[in-house]
Design a protein that fits this description.
By secondary structure, the chain is mostly helical. The chain is built from three helices and two strands, in the order H-E-H-E-H.
Length: about 130
């Protein structure tokens, strides 16, 4: 029940994406001084709505964080169209650092949610024994 709940599955998928994003950003930072390096980024394939394929995703508020299910499956892609420096590299150090910090905050929040869920179950199990 705990392991198979829809909430835990969504949290797991979001943690996987946050870990992948951290790897992508770390790779970009590691290649900051590599000539002709083109940065990587995550792209999400649109999830097709079974009732109406191709329907646009709608949100009640543009500040709401949408889950991975809403975005679709992540895919690592390379940004080939831009160049930031004369050596052909297109990594923006400030943007990558900001992305890393933002992603770390997202990851920490997800881990905290998982920990709280486990703490709730531990409490329920331990109180049930009394």
């Amino acid at each position: 029940m705990l392991w198979n709940s829809p909430l835990m599955e969504r949290l797991r998928k979001n943690l996987d994406v946050a870990a992948l994003q951290q790897k992508v950003t770390a790779n970009n930072l590691a290649n900051f001084n590599t000539p002709d390096y083109k940065k990587l980024y995550l792209s999400f394939k649109e999830k097709q709505n079974q009732k109406g394929a191709g329907m646009a995703l709608s949100s009640t508020n543009n500040k709401h964080y949408l889950s991975i299910e809403a975005h679709g499956k992540p895919e690592v892609r390379r940004e080939r169209q831009t160049t930031r420096r004369p050596d052909g590299n297109n990594v923006d150090l400030d943007q990558e650092m900001l992305d890393m910090v933002t992603n770390q905050l997202r990851y920490n929040t997800l881990v905290q949610q998982v920990s709280e869920r486990y703490a709730q179950w531990t409490y329920i199990i331990n109180e049930g024994r009394r």
